[in-house]
């Protein structure tokens, strides 16, 4: 049995040539979808404790480092939230986190700049109400909701603007308790 080339495929003559604009849009959407899936898998593994947190310095989105305190309003300065084995550089808000992304108020239990984006966990009291607050703040700042699924036991939403795509989830984690997790990637 011989394989047909794409040009010889019987359906090729019915489909017509692929428009380069359509093709680039599909690749762009496919790339964003794959990026979101990758970030979601990484966050799931991170939150479930399936792999150790990296302890290597550097690699931040601006090349200057992975995290550090920002304005002090959301940094964790020595409190006992989160596991004891989390390196100090992952405690608190990453210094490179974009200030134009609205966050809910609360204590940052974990923050990391992964070079292509950020992940920040904020300790909360009510998974559903705090997720709704996070979603409302993003939509109020001009973000478009791509997906929202709200439940009392955990919620998930994806939001984007011209600069960022933000995935927000609320969940009860084994290491940090009740948190709202922001996963942010540049578009």
Give the helix/strand layout.
Layout: H1 12-15, H2 20-48, E1 108-113, E2 117-123, H3 127-140, E3 144-149, E4 155-160, E5 164-173, E6 177-186
Antiparallel strand pairs: 1-2, 2-6, 3-4, 4-5, 5-6
How would you describe this structure to a colleague?
There is one protein chain. The chain is an alpha+beta fold and 187 residues long. It has a domain of 100 residues. Helix content is 25%, strand content 24%. The protein is built from 3 helices and 6 strands, in the order ααββαββββ. It has a 6-stranded antiparallel sheet, sandwiched between helices. Strand 5 and strand 6 form a beta hairpin. The N and C termini lie far apart (45 Å). About 29% of the residues have low confidence.
Pairing-aware structural class of the strands and helices?
alpha+beta
What about the largest sheet? 6 strands, antiparallel
In helices, the fraction of residues equals: 25-40%
- End-to-end separation: 45 Å
Mean pLDDT: 72
Order of helices and strands, N to C?
HHEEHEEEE
Give the strand order, joined by hyphens, for the main sheet.
1-2-6-5-4-3
Q: What fraction of the residues are assigned to beta strands by DSSP?
A: 15-25%
The general outline is globular
Number of helical segments?
3
> Count the strands?
6
**What is the C-alpha radius of gyration, as a whole number of Å?**
20 Å
Uncertain segments are: 9-27, 45-60, 63-81
């Amino acid at each position: 049995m011989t394989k047909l080339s794409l040009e010889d495929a019987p359906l090729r003559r019915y489909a017509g040539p692929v428009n380069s604009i359509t093709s680039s849009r599909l690749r762009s959407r496919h790339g964003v979808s794959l990026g979101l899936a990758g970030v979601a898998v990484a966050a799931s593994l991170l939150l479930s404790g399936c792999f150790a947190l990296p302890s290597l310095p550097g690699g931040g989105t601006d090349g200057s480092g992975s995290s550090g305190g920002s304005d002090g309003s959301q940094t964790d300065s020595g409190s006992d939230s989160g596991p004891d084995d989390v390196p100090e550089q992952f405690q608190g808000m990453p210094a490179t986190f974009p200030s134009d992304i609205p966050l809910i108020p609360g204590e940052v239990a974990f923050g990391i700049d992964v070079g292509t984006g950020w992940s920040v966990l904020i300790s909360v009291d009510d998974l559903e109400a705090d997720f709704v607050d996070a979603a409302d703040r993003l939509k109020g700042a001009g973000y478009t909701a791509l997906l929202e699924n709200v439940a009392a036991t955990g919620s998930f939403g994806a939001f984007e603007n011209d600069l960022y795509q933000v995935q927000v989830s609320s969940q009860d984690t084994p290491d940090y308790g009740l948190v709202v997790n922001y996963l942010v990637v540049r578009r």
